[in-house]
Design a protein that fits this description.
Low-confidence stretches of chain A: none
Largest sheet of chain A: 6 strands, mixed
Helix content of chain B: 55-70%
Low-confidence stretches of chain B: 1-46, 352-358
CATH architecture of the largest domain in chain B: Orthogonal Bundle
Strand content of chain A: 25-35%
Strand order of the largest sheet of chain A: 6-7-8-3-9-10
CATH architecture of the largest domain in chain A: 3-Layer(aba) Sandwich
Order of helices and strands of chain B: HHHHHHHHHHHHHHHH
Number of strands of chain A: 21
Shape of chain A: elongated
CATH superfamily of the largest domain in chain A: P-loop containing nucleotide triphosphate hydrolases
Number of helices of chain B: 16
Number of domains of chain B: 2
CATH topology of the largest domain in chain A: Rossmann fold
CATH class of the largest domain in chain B: Mainly Alpha
Strand content of chain B: under 5%
Distance between the termini of chain B: 36 Å
Helix content of chain A: 10-25%
Mean pLDDT of chain A: 89
Number of strands of chain B: 0
Oligomer: heterodimer
Mean pLDDT of chain B: 79
Largest interface: A-B, 26 and 22 residues
Chain lengths: 375, 358
């Protein structure tokens, strides 16, 4: 068990900067998830922690020890890989004990530890199977057993669930959380799936374009995103954005106008701002009481309805002339999230209100959050 | 009847059949779509045999046979497979058989040696080759030189193959090209400079080698031959090593090996078929090599003259002992034959365990 500290980590390939001046401290025993779109540098960051890639600049400490120049094997870490990476020419026992055998543990100790690790991931009785004879979930469990058997100071997991089918993924997700609770070890987890990040982590690290965007507990990232990127990336379905301009008494856009006191929220009249509102914070006018502090109502027309069971997603257009984009988001469009029993049909004219408590404002130029509530 | 049954039946028919099979596969392709599993059910019944609805058609024997092949192309493929196999077996094994015929022909009957049946039977030739000359020593020389060369080539080739196949660095392609270009030279081009070099007395070698030069030592054969066959092995190994997923090497390094350890513990075992191929090719090439082998020593067995030199020693000034040469050739082939059989098992097992699956 150990803390992990990145100071000024930068990784440059010929003309691409994959990771840019990353500073991060991961506490002992913490479950931290790196999340971001593919190619954002989250895997590269993890590889620098593992020692598989050397950073161009910066230092890495694990448990207070500077490991920047140490090879992976001497860093006291273990890793679970996206493609599982079991050695195909070794059976389960040999796979799990690989690291121990290389470290010349005596046979009894190896047997005891392998058994213990296999017990944790429920692999008893499969010791002489070859990886090719196992299912995806079993292989994943072997990979996890191989990682925990050495009792490392920190686990690194690089999209370990990406290659599993949806059902197994959810199952393994809970398994991993249980494992974290049992082992109480520092876990650094990489995923592009914000749902995994939200459900499992103590803190999530949102990365985009090699730059750290926000480091915070999941709900803080959800409720108080640091900038427009985090707001759009965390949460599914994603937040609606409406481009507008701050005025003397609120914010005005092509189809909406929200009243508030600009001074109280640090907005200067004339400033270009982006209004962010999550789909569940938009309500029909007739249900305006569901919002703690409704804004005034706006006209809209229902474009597409997606009943999901526990809720209904409705894609609205602010005006019949708005051309709906393929993904149903964008200027003049609004995705809202309604109670499952809401009576609503396509092509209806509706009036909607926003919940002022959950209206986010972002500076359009920098993308930084200005406020997370207009109350 | 299942599909497998059908194939087996086809094989039997084909094995028993004869005639111009070569023309059939081409026509069979066109009707591929019409061939369906008979067990598939009634709906497709008609398609199985286009002739089923015209039972009255009068066909000659060849026509009927061709129609059968068209409706059931598996048979035709089987038949061509057997014809081709028999052809290759005859062309490769017959010379070997004839070598045996010559070997057992007694010395006095050599002038009227037959093609299929030896003129007389004298298995003593296989003993005589060891009594007339220390032929075993020649074979041992070749075997040892080939083994050492193979080990050296695989070791150096693995390191080079790893670098070329798995690392990305500036100048990788030109360097690889340079390595390959050296293998395009005719080996004989290297002979004169090498011969001069190996005949030069080098003082530092004096304590190690009696004469102080490499001539008449196994190194004079092993060094140039290893170098000549190295590029091919590098190329083969590079191709195999580059196929191993990066994740496996990363996993190995995280688990506790260095890059070198990952190469020999994970990448090499998973590339067993490639390593076996490179190894067998190198071994056979060095073992059978004649040009360097015969010119880098004076031809005496104690001076590491190789196996081919031994075979040629059976031709004297006045007489050529063809029967002994033939017997020696057969004996000389044995180590290689054994090696190939063993290695082939490795290759097959390497392929069937699905080692490089992921």
């Amino acid at each position: 068990m150990a803390s992990v500290k990145l100071s000024g980590i930068t990784k440059r390939y010929e003309d691409v900067t994959a990771v840019d001046d990353m500073n991060l401290e991961i506490n002992d025993g913490e479950f931290v998830t790196f999340v971001g779109p593919s190619g954002c540098g989250k895997s590269t960051t993890m590889e620098t922690i593992a020692g598989l890639t050397l950073p161009t600049e910066g230092t890495i400490e694990i448990g207070g020890r500077d490991v920047t120049d140490l090879p992976p094997k001497d860093r006291g870490i273990s890793m679970v890989f996206q493609n599982i990476a079991l050695f195909p020419h070794m059976d389960v026992y040999d796979n799990i004990s690989f690291g121990l055998r290389l470290r010349k543990y005596d046979q009894e100790e190896i047997d005891r530890r392998v058994e213990e690790a296999a017990d944790v991931v429920q692999l008893e009785g499969m010791m002489d199977r070859m990886p090719s004879e196992m299912s995806g979930g079993q292989r994943q469990r072997v990979a996890i057993a191989r990682a925990i058997v050495r009792k490392p100071e920190a686990f690194l997991m690089d999209e370990p669930l990406a290659n599993l089918d949806a059902e197994l993924r959810v199952h393994m997700r809970t398994q991993l959380q249980r494992l974290h609770r049992e082992l109480d070890t520092t876990i650094v987890y990489v995923t592009h799936d914000q749902a995994q990040a939200m459900t499992m982590s103590d803190r999530i690290v949102v990365i985009n374009g090699g730059v750290l965007q926000q480091v915070a507990p999941p709900l803080e990232c959800y409720n108080e995103p640091a900038n427009r990127f985090v707001a759009g990336f965390i949460g599914s379905p994603a937040m609606n954005f409406i481009e507008g301009e701050a005025t003397e008494d609120g914010v005005e856009s092509t189809y909406t106008q929200i009243d508030f006191d600009p001074d109280a929220h640090g907005v200067t009249p004339g400033q270009d701002v982006t209004v962010g509102i999550r789909p569940e914070d938009v309500h029909l006018e007739r249900n305006a009481d569901q919002a703690d502090a409704p804004t005034k109502a706006f006209d809209a027309v229902v474009d597409v309805i997606e009943p999901i069971g526990k809720e209904v997603n409705a894609y609205l257009l602010f005006d019949r002339d708005v051309e709906a984009s393929a993904e149903g988001r964008g200027e003049g469009q609004l995705l809202i999230n309604l109670e499952p029993d809401t009576r609503i049909v396509e092509d209806d004219d509706v009036r909607v209100v926003l919940d002022r408590e959950n209206v986010h404002l972002f500076d359009r130029e920098s993308g930084d959050a200005i406020t997370h509530s207009l109350e | 009847m299942t599909r497998d049954d059908r194939v087996d039946a086809a094989a039997e028919n084909a094995a028993a059949g004869d005639g111009p099979t070569a023309s059939v596969p081409g026509t069979a392709h066109a009707t591929d779509g019409g061939v369906t599993d008979p067990s598939a059910g009634g709906a497709t019944e008609e398609v199985i045999d286009p002739t089923a609805n015209e039972p009255d058609l009068d066909r000659g024997i060849i026509e009927a046979w061709a129609a059968k092949m068209i409706t059931n192309p598996e048979r035709a493929y089987r038949a061509t497979f057997y014809v081709a196999t028999v052809f290759f077996l005859v062309t490769t094994l017959f010379p070997f058989y004839w070598l045996f015929v010559v070997a057992v022909t007694p010395r006095n009957n050599l002038s009227d040696v037959g093609v299929f049946i030896p003129a007389g039977f004298n298995p003593g030739a296989f003993v005589e080759i060891f009594t007339t000359l220390p032929f075993h020593r020649y074979v041992f020389n070749s075997f040892l030189i080939a083994t050492v060369a193979t080990v050296a080539v695989l070791l150096v080739g693995s390191l080079a193959g790893y670098v070329f196949g798995r690392l990305d660095f500036r100048g990788r392609s030109p360097l690889l090209l340079l390595v390959l270009v050296t293998s395009f030279f005719p080996p004989a081009a290297f002979f004169i400079p090498l011969n001069r070099l190996f005949n030069t007395n080098v003082d530092v070698l004096r304590p190690l080698l009696s004469a102080g030069s490499l001539y008449n030592t196994p190194y004079a054969i092993f060094i140039p031959l290893s170098a000549i066959f190295l590029p091919l092995s590098i190329f083969i190994l590079m191709t195999f090593y580059s196929q191993i997923p990066d994740g496996l090497e990363d996993a190995s390094r995280v688990e506790g090996t260095t890059r070198l350890g990952a190469l020999f513990r994970v990448i090499v075992p998973l590339s067993a078929p490639g390593v076996a191929t490179a190894g067998v090719l190198t071994f056979i090439s060095v073992y059978n090599e004649y040009f360097f082998s015969s010119l880098m020593t004076d031809g005496r067995p104690q001076n590491w003259a190789p196996m081919l030199e031994g075979i040629l020693r059976f031709q004297g000034e006045f007489e050529v002992l063809y029967n002994l040469m033939a017997a020696a050739s057969i004996v000389a082939v044995l180590p290689v034959a054994i090696l190939v059989v063993v290695a082939q098992e490795k290759i097959v097992s390497g392929l069937t365990t699905g080692a490089v699956k992921e």
